[in-house]
Amino acid sequence: MSRPTIAGVARAAGVSVASVSRVLNGLPATEEMTERVRRAVAELGYVPDARARSLKVGRTFQLTLAVADVGNPVYVTMMRAVEEVVSAAGYRLVVTTTGPDVVDEVALVQGMARGYADGLLISPIRVDEDLVKAIRACEVPVVVAGSVPSKAGVDTVRANSPKGMLLAVDHLTYCGRRRIAFLNGPADTVPGAARAKGFAEALRAHDLEPIAVAEAADFTFAAGRRVSGDVLRAKPNAVICANDLLAVGLMHELAAAGLDVPNDVAVVGMDDSELAEQSFPPLTSVNLGSAERGRRAAELLLARIDDNDRTPRRIVVQPSLSIRRSTP
Amino acid sequence: MSRPTIAGVARAAGVSVASVSRVLNGLPATEEMTERVRRAVAELGYVPDARARSLKVGRTFQLTLAVADVGNPVYVTMMRAVEEVVSAAGYRLVVTTTGPDVVDEVALVQGMARGYADGLLISPIRVDEDLVKAIRACEVPVVVAGSVPSKAGVDTVRANSPKGMLLAVDHLTYCGRRRIAFLNGPADTVPGAARAKGFAEALRAHDLEPIAVAEAADFTFAAGRRVSGDVLRAKPNAVICANDLLAVGLMHELAAAGLDVPNDVAVVGMDDSELAEQSFPPLTSVNLGSAERGRRAAELLLARIDDNDRTPRRIVVQPSLSIRRSTP
DNA sequence: CTCTGGCCTGTAAACGATTACAAGAACGAT
DNA sequence: ATCGTTCTTGTAATCGTTTACAGGCCAGAG
Predict the structure, then answer these.
(1) pLDDT at res. A81
(2) Contact at 8 Å (CB) between B250 and B184?
(3) Is B223 on the interface with A (CB under 8 A)?
């Protein structure tokens, strides 16, 4: 006794499959018809098959979210926001981890042609020509959370890193710190490059010279710790970090070196993730609007699924600074 | 010019659709046939439709992972492990957040009958009769990460909280702490109940009386902070927390109260998540094997998808203690 | 030379829904 | 009473695969 199909329900209710389908999809039907179908559905415990439905209507009601590393708390924030929007719209979320390699991202984008999801929300950590091409050619709507050349002709939602950097430097100089170092992630990544550029500009705007710039191997706590020494040798009295994980890694090394945060060294993180609030001391962090980016990106994706002909939008979310205890 | 179908490939290659399908699925075919099909596939850029395939073969090659809160770092650890196992086996992972309500979990389990995934890996935060019934009746294989009555007849992988508690209490008494308090999450949850019981047993084994037991509204940082006061009023010299987030919340309150960790109060967390390592001071934490649980659970699920008649297994993962700086 | 058996390959029937189309019923207007 | 309109319902085609089945061909055995 296997799962009942729509045909079984139709038989049990003494009506046609078309009528069952109509009732189930809320199309007009008489009182009596609705009642008979409902009764048969309840009796048999019928649940429509999503696979069959997908094939016929050409939609799976699934969306794919691709991120580089689920362990990064900034993605947790984004994922929460995305989940909320898409599940409210009746979609499920397929979460995929791409890893740091761009070829995996390209493969993922091309694989979307299989049609297992109705859209893709991707936050690429590295971008190259192949990826742009793959995104252009993608069978399903794509929204990029991050920067991608405008010729990709795709909706994007990105942060304003330079402005965020400026907020951080403004705040630090206001606190009287002028020996500012920068702890970046890999500069060959999209966020790494943006932040490096933003940092240089922000210092220039304040007529300052960078004291030190270090690059961690990736955007993780462990990598941050490993290169903290390079930053500290320059004796900065403030360090801006490219994300919160790196900042927390740095603070551990500062504690190990017997330096006080914020008195000896002020620390500013970026992303304003949950970790910023949880770290000790609580981390002053540039809020790059990850929740809002997630939300807006999800909304763009839904809008594009409804109408794929709309002109691509490029949304920039403005940053703000969450001041906590790691700065004076 | 829409997506090519298998019929288009067949036409282009001058063969039948069956032959195309066979070549694509690696069934025996002559050298020449294989070559012609490959060429046509490449030329048209054909990619098989997952929706149609799912309908026919009755599988989607997707698995659902349902957790209560993606913000809890313990789920990040589990998710990583699960992703690794299932993607190696050729499955995609659908991540769903159930929220704290058991009715949502029941709805989720019942919704699996739609067949959008081939299996469900669920870590229920609360369990009731309805959920057990739903799991028993579920159309697709289910593996539970956590405790569920054995009559559910389902594969489970769970932690050994009592043993973990004992490790924590052993360690604290060894450090000379005997005024031990407990900061729990909601006691009406599965992990909350298990840990409360484990804590009581562990203290009894050491002939100790609990100094204080508090219950946070949920397993989050903010909730932990809010009830920390209740714990501290009893002037404990050690506090065991039901998870790392609660422990970090408590440590913030300790700092605010001017108390030193570990000298004034030793703190032990549970889960040994990434946060334990990142917090300051680094948190001594009971490793309940979340990565291993994720891995084993995923393996059980894959095995059951292969053979749904195997007798249910109940795996218990043993805990260990990761000693860091929050204890003397 | 014929027959049997074993490959390949193609035709067509699923899988389980949605939906275009047509047919029938009901009803009001003439 | 007849016609036309509208509303409901049923029949059957369709989505794009996989796969059971059968037919055709060839080789080897008798």
Answers:
(1) 95
(2) no
(3) no
Residues with Cβ < 8 Å from A196, sequence gap 6 or more? Answer: A182, A184, A187, A213
Q: Which of A257, A281, A259, A260 is nearest to A269 (CA)?
A: A281
Q: What is the pLDDT of residue B70?
A: 84
Of the candidates A68, A43, A167, the one whose C-alpha atom is nearest the C-alpha of residue A126 is: A68
Exposed/middle/buried for residue B314 (C-beta within 10 Å: 0-12, 13-18, 19+) = middle
The Cα angle at residue A113 between residues A122 and B20, in degrees rounded to 5? 155
φ and ψ at residue A238, rounded to 5 degrees:
-160, 145
Q: Where are the alpha helices (DSSP H) in chain A?
A: 6-13, 17-24, 31-44, 50-57, 73-88, 102-111, 129-137, 161-174, 190-205, 221-232, 244-256, 274-278, 290-306
User: CB contact, 8 Å: A96 with chain B?
Assistant: yes
Nearest C-alpha neighbor of B190 from the set B105, B247, B256, B308? B105
Two structure tokens written together for B258: 């001017």
CB pairs under 8 A between A and B: 121
d(CA B84, CA B104): 27
Residues ≥6 apart with Cβ < 8 Å to B308: B141
CA of A27 to C1' of D9 (A): 13
Rounded Cα distance, B300 and B294, in Å: 10
Q: How far apart are CA A65 and CA B22, in angstroms?
A: 32
Degrees to nearest 5, angle at CA A258 with A219 and A322: 50
Contacts of A93 in chain B (CB under 8 A): 94-96
Taking Cα atoms as reference points, which of B202, B326, B183 lies closest to residue B263?
Answer: B326
Are the CB atoms for B195 and B252 separated by under 8 Å?
no
CA angle A208, A212, A216 (to 5 degrees): 135
Q: Are A33 and A271 in contact (CB under 8 A)?
A: no
Whole-number pLDDT of residue A1? 54
- The segments of chain A whose pLDDT lies below 50 read none
- Beta bridge partners of residue B184, listed in sequence order: B215
Q: Which of B295, B301, B277 is nearest to B287 (CA)?
A: B277
B224-236: pLDDT as tens digits = 999 999 999 999 9
Residues in chain B with CB shorter than 8 Å from the CB of A114 are: 47-50
Give me Rg for the CA atoms of chain B.
25
Q: Residue B5 burial (CB < 10 Å; 0-12/13-18/19+)? A: middle
Across the strands, what pairs with B182?
Answer: B213, B240
**Other Cβ atoms closer than 10 A to B258:** 7
Distances from the Cα of B137 to the Cα of B83, B102, B130, B154, B207, angstroms: 26, 16, 10, 11, 45
Residue of A225, A184, A9, A270 lying closest to B278 (CA atoms) = A225
Tell me if residue B269 falls in helix, strand or coil.
strand
Nearest Cα residue in chain B from A138: B3
Residue B90 confidence (pLDDT) above 80: yes
Q: Look at B274 and A71 and tell me if their CB atoms are within 8 Å.
A: yes
In this complex, the residue of A47, A110, A277 whose CB is nearest that of residue B114 is A47
B11 touches strand D (CB under 7 A): no
Three-class secondary structure assignment of B25-89: CCCCCCHHHHHHHHHHHHHHCCCCCHHHHHHHHCCCCEEEEEECCCCCHHHHHHHHHHHHHHHHC
- Least Cα distance to B305 among B53, B65, B118 occurs for B118
Measured over all CA atoms, what is the biggest interatomic distance in chain A, rounded to whole angstroms? 83
Residues 6+ away with beta carbon under 8 Å from A182: A195, A196, A199, A210, A212, A213, A214, A231, A239, A240, A241, A242
